[in-house]
Amino acid sequence: MVVQDIQQFAEIRPKARAYFCYLFHKNLPNHLPSVSIESLTARLLKIRGDLQGLEATYVLDAAGNQVTPTYLKNGKKEEDIGASRSTRAYYYRAMHERRCTITDPYPSLLNDELTVTASEPIFDEHGEIVYVACIDMPLAQVLRIAHPMALESVSGRFFRIAYGVFTVVLALVSLLLFVKGIEGFLSYGMGHYERIEIKDIFEATILLTLSLAILDLVKTLFEEEVLGRPKSDPASSIHKTMVRFLGSIIIALSIEALMLVFKFAMTEPHMLVNAIYIIGGVAMLLVGLAVYIRFTNLGERH
Predict the structure, then answer these.
(1) How far apart are CA 120 and CA 104, in angstroms?
(2) Which residues contact residue 291 at a Cβ distance below 8 angstroms, ignoring those fewer than 6 apart?
(3) Of the residues 9, 89, 203, 277, which has the maximum number of CB atoms within 10 A of its CB?
(4) What is the pLDDT of residue 154?
């Protein structure tokens, strides 16, 4: 998926740049007294032959004008000699940084697919940039090379399917809890709600709260791991999901403790200590959640 591919590219960008820089340094002549366009073109065509999936190669001069045709992966070429590329990121970044660079993904003019361009400045013996060698490669191919866990890989698809299966099962559990939560009310029939006992209301509230907590977890897993929703801050996303889930559990346990207090106070006063134990456990969970939120927020600010 496009969104998750872009996110994965942001993670593996240093590896991708290192790979392209290695190809440039290994194959292209640089810092030599005389570098001809013909020799650069021959070396770029060699890279095109060796690098599966490469989309196009071409050479720019120091002013950003294209001085060779655009050599495509299928052996064809486009006569773009003289076209100005001085406003393109792959040109001015290579000129400014004076080193091998790699662009962000952008729609290719050749096929409208997301493409990444790697560029390498070519220096003469005086350290002046005379040419900029460029290669275009589809984003999907870059991910296959530099990211072993890309969605298009076998293992990537496996984990995506696994997350999908787990979310479906958890969604069914949430549905069962929801049905069980309202089953007690439905058993009284229409028009007989005055016979509903307080105990049934407490139990239904606990089940519905747990159902909501699991459904919220399912929503997060499905959107982020299966659909590939962008995560601007993965740590913050996990933090919010954890807080909501633990909060739902604390609410359910608090309701259970309150229900037991009412029940034991009326029927078995000597059992009130068990309710107190649950209340103590809820208090400890609240303290632990507060500490977790405190340290997590501190970590995000730093």
Answers:
(1) 15
(2) none
(3) 9
(4) 60
Enter the tokens of residue 262: 């009412």
Q: What is the dihedral of CA 35, 38, 42, 48, to 10 degrees?
A: 100
Residue 259 half-sphere exposure toward CB, CA atoms < 13 A: 16
Residues across the chain:
302
C-alpha to C-alpha distance for 260 and 266, rounded to whole angstroms: 10
2-146 domain in CATH 3.40.50.170? no
Report the distance separating Cα 181 and Cα 169, nearest Å: 18
Strand ranges (E), the chain: 56-61, 70-72, 77-78, 101-102, 106-107, 114-123, 129-138
Q: Residue 98 and residue 22: Cα distance in Å, rounded?
A: 16
d(CA 128, CA 97): 13
Whole-structure pTM value:
0.53
Residue 185: what pLDDT? 66
- State the amino acid at position 165 in one-letter form: V
Over residues 92-113, the pLDDT tens digits come to 999 999 999 999 998 887 777 8
Which of 196, 165, 11 lies closest to 173, judged by CA? Answer: 165
Q: Which residues contact 13 (CB under 8 A, 6 or more apart)?
A: 102
Q: What is the DSSP letter of 125?
A: T
| DSSP string across 2-63 | HHHHHHHHHHHHHHHHHHHHHHHHHHS--SBS---HHHHHHHHHHHHHHSTT--EEEEEETT
pLDDT value for 286: 86
The ranges of the chain with pLDDT < 70 are 1-4, 147-156, 184-185, 187-198, 224, 227-241, 297-302
Enter the tokens of residue 119.
């560029």
Euclidean distance between CA atoms 128 and 89, whole angstroms: 20
Give the residue extent of every domain in the chain: 2-146, 154-301
The token duo for 189 is: 């029939």
Distance CA 279, CA 261 (A): 10
